[in-house]
Amino acid sequence: MTGAATWRDPAWLDPALAWARERLARLGRTVTDPPEQVHVRAWSTAVRIPTDGGVVWLKSVGAGSAQEPPLAAALGGWAPGRVLVPLAVDAGRRLLLLPDGGTTLRASGRGGDLGAWEALLADHARLQVEVAAHADEMVALDVPDLRPERLPDLAAALLADDGALLTGTPDGLDPALRDRLRTGADAYAGLCRALAAGPVPASVQHDDLHDGNVFVTGDGFRFFDWGDASVAHPFLTLLVPLRGAAAALDLPPGSPVLLRLRDAYLGPWRQFAEAAVLRELAGLALLVGPLARALTWHRILRAVHPEEAAPWQASVPGWVAESVAPGPLDGAAA
């Protein structure tokens, strides 16, 4: 298990920095100033390393995000123009050495720009289309498999987990809602079957796509931070950015602007089906997505020291509850 103490412990940090220096030396680069550990979360850390060839970043993740180093490396090989390509990875030690990606969309001040969100979503769809043929390879790299065929059983196991749902605590899932979801398990399985039967192939599913996880470049965007990622129906990706865009753009519930963003994302998928079919599948994905997001939080928090996981544990029952709450497109005219 990991936590802030793990990442700050010299017994972990010093060997990790030694690995980074050795990899940099192979690239002909030298560290010029002391590294600075600027990001520490219970499940990950990032260290800024100045070198004679510019700043690089050492990142490490907890066991719940162990897929990130090999996935980032694989995506860098399959779609180097669309992702931040690692300089080196050590999958066994869950280490990534990354170039400085520049400015995120959020930091650029364009997070309130509708056109930027449209372009971001379209570019991310293009990435998913390009790597969809590698879905089985991603699973072989131990990227979590949340394809729709598997979701009903995974969701049922989560709904049976008192600890994950904080049963009997103030932040826990309402017992009546839990019963409702269990009773509706067949309906949920039907939604998953409909997604699986559709014409859109499984692909990488970022599961935390927002304006802080994409760099703005001269020719588009570079996506990064794959710690929540899975192999899944790609349209589940829409859940987080539609919510993020609604907040960043100050949109009211049911705003037609969100439909415009959905359609921008669906554009690159038109090679697989007509727009009406894609929109229907997107609607199904937004219904299925909250329970998948709860599974992601559960996976990550299981690998964190309990005392540090505690402030975040309500995210699991919270996302479970979102599965029956109004979605980001509810109320918008299709």
From TrEMBL:
Residues 137-238 form the Aminoglycoside phosphotransferase domain. Pfam families: APH. Keywords: Transferase. It comes from the Bacteria. GO terms for molecular function: transferase activity. This is Phosphotransferase enzyme family protein. It comes from Geodermatophilus nigrescens.
